[in-house]
Design brief:
Blueprint lengths: L17 H10 L1 E5 L4 E3 L7 E12 L34 E13 H10 L1 H21 L4 E4 L5 H12 L5 E3 L6 H9 L5 E4 L3 E2 L5 H7 L11 E7 L3 H12 L4 E4 L26 H14 L3 E3 L4 E6 L5 E5 L4 E9 L3 E3 L7 H4 L4 E2 L4 H4 L6 E5 L3 H10 L5 E5 L11 H9 L3 E4 L3 E6 L6 E6 L2 E6 L2 E4 L3 E3 L35 E3 L11 H23 L1
Parallel strand pairs: 5-6, 9-10, 9-14, 10-11, 14-25, 16-23, 17-18, 17-23, 18-19
Antiparallel strand pairs: 1-4, 2-4, 3-4, 5-7, 7-8, 12-13, 13-14, 15-24, 20-21, 21-22
Helix pairs in contact: 2-3, 7-8, 7-13, 11-12
Length: 538
């Protein structure tokens, strides 16, 4: 299966071309560091591109202050990883291992240079992406999570970090290795999020972590964007790529994680160009890197709560905590969310055995136990296949009498022939067992009630559109999906009843609910948005 970026271990090291170094020298300044000087600290903004002329820069373990990696950066190499594109912050500290001389170029000037010199851009971004992949896989980070296995708040932070490919380390409260014991003692064996050596985050949330590492952008209220994209699923990210490529000033706002519902799919095998499959999060992450390369900005986790329109036609959205962002056009790509089951105690067990995504993070919570997946669509089928690698057995609960109408045939065949998966047709979950954690479920089957012991249940049923914030501004169908096209007042296929507001992907009424379809719509809609913006700015 395809993975994000190249493997840093097998990448051939190629220095920047001499003329590229000269270009960086023209926009930067030389700077020196004595041996032992810190070059960057955890949380410092990535506001400079640093190229090493002489000396050596090492990555520092934020826990011990010792050198973290055998490899270091020497002459002809440069600092940074993919967060540089979106002005994120440093996850790891770095210092001069010996007297060192560098060229430091301002980030904005470097990005402008990269936009003019594609060979330079390709080189830098390939290295940045490979470094992020290595950081993520090796869990090299200043962020330590303790107790995600037992605490819903820490679990939400872990889900946010993992789905956004942000490196972190995670420790279970009952971990027995020396480092786990030492870290847990720092917090009194209580769930917590730690930054660096001893910064224990008070009341950890995804938003606080995002603010700490520069993901929650300080958006200037005076900036009028050309395009505001609401939703970071496949359609929204595709729109972000094409908006940036067309030179539009674009901002994408996402309330959870880049990838949307597709980001919860562990394996997509029917997307063009990936014959061995790719996870939904990896697919959309590649698009995010492309969009940032073209200058599109991302802000998360931020929720859009309202919409208004000024007399000059500009749209303004209000975000959580009162921020307002304005743009000349809006692309609605908010997708859908899985519905909750009407079961007593469900909300209390969310994050403690009840889940709406099936990634490797959730899979570990059902190790050595059975798992239940509720739903008959592709997402449910992919989740069942993925969880069967970890759980003792997977029970797929389907309300109808077949999978044929709602699932790809290749997936149906695999499910029916997998000995670790049992499909329960004409069946519903009627009750939950457990107080602090899920212990089991009751199924209503054609043969009567059946008790199942399980550690986790994954709900992937029916979809409700995320359109409450649009109420009164565009026409919606009877289920809340956005109506578009000429028959509903739109001047193009994806324009809504309000000129300048467009809808794409799963949230659009009548759309094909597939990743490829959402990507296609996101790619095409920008031409209509560009035409609308051009009219306003002529």
């Amino acid at each position: 299966m395809e993975s994000i970026a190249a493997d840093l271990e097998t990448m051939r090291r190629v220095p920047l071309a001499d003329d590229h170094v000269d270009m960086i020298r023209d926009i930067g300044v030389e700077r020196t560091y004595d041996a032992g000087d810190m070059v960057v600290e955890v949380g410092d903004p990535m506001d400079e591109f640093v190229y090493v002329l002489d000396g050596e820069i090492e990555v520092v373990d934020p826990w011990s202050d010792e050198r973290l990696l055998e490899a270091s950066l020497g002459p002809t190499q440069f600092m940074g990883e993919i967060a540089f594109l979106n002005r994120g912050n440093w996850f790891l500290p770095m210092r001069a291992a010996k007297d060192t001389r560098v060229i430091a170029a301002p980030r904005e000037a470097m990005l402008e240079l990269m936009s003019r010199v594609p060979e330079l851009s390709d080189h830098v971004i390939s290295v940045f992406a490979a470094r992020r992949r290595k950081q993520f896989e090796m869990q090299n980070s200043s962020v330590k999570l303790i107790g995600a296995d037992q605490d819903a708040a820490v679990q939400k932070v872990e889900s946010f970090l993992r789905r956004n490919r942000i490196p972190y380390e995670s420790y279970d409260l009952d971990g027995r290795d020396d480092e786990a014991i030492e870290v847990c003692e720092l917090t009194g064996h209580s769930p917590a999020v730690i930054i660096g050596q001893n910064e224990v985050m008070d009341g950890p949330t995804p938003r606080k972590v995002a603010q700490r590492f520069g993901l929650d952008l300080d958006m200037c209220s005076e900036t009028i964007y050309d395009v505001l994209i609401v939703g970071g699923g496949p359609g929204g990210v595709a729109a972000a790529v094409y908006a940036g490529a067309e030179g539009l000033c674009a901002l994408l706002i996402e309330d959870t994680a880049i990838g949307g519902q597709a980001g919860t799919s562990s394996r997509i095998e029917n997307y063009l160009g990936f014959p061995t499959g790719i996870s939904g999060s990896d697919l959309v992450y590649r698009g995010e890197i492309q969009a940032m390369k073209f200058g599109t900005r991302f802000a998360m986790p931020r929720r859009v709560e309202g919409l208004s329109q000024r007399d000059d036609g500009t749209f303004c959205v209000s975000l959580d905590e009162g921020t307002e962002v304005c743009a000349r056009s809006v692309v609605v790509a908010t997708g859908v969310q899985y519905r909750r089951l009407p079961l007593e105690g469900l909300r209390e067990l969310e994050g403690a055995g009840i889940y709406y995504a099936a990634t490797d993070m959730e899979a570990r919570f059902c190790r050595n136990s059975d798992a239940v997946v509720v739903g008959g669509g592709n997402s449910a089928g992919q989740a069942a296949m993925y969880l069967s690698r970890t759980a003792n057995h997977v029970h797929l609960v389907v309300r109808g009498d077949s999978l044929a109408s709602s699932m790809s045939s290749y997936l149906t065949s695999r499910l029916e022939h997998d000995p670790k998966i049992t499909i329960h047709y004409n069946t519903e979950v009627s009750d939950l067992q457990g107080t602090n954690r899920l212990r089991g479920v009751t199924l209503d089957t054609p043969e009567g009630s059946q008790e199942l012991s399980c550690a986790a249940m994954f709900i992937m049923i029916g979809a409700a559109p995320n359109t409450d914030w649009l109420s009164g501004h565009v026409k919606l169908d009877e289920r809340g999906f956005v109506l578009t096209g000429a028959g509903n007042g739109g001047a193009s296929q994806y324009e809504t009843s309000t000129q300048g507001i467009f809808a794409i992907g799963d949230v659009r009424s009548g759309s094909v609910k597939r990743v490829a379809s959402a990507v296609g719509e996101g790619s095409v809609v920008i031409s209509a948005a560009w035409q609308h913006v051009a009219k306003l700015t002529d």
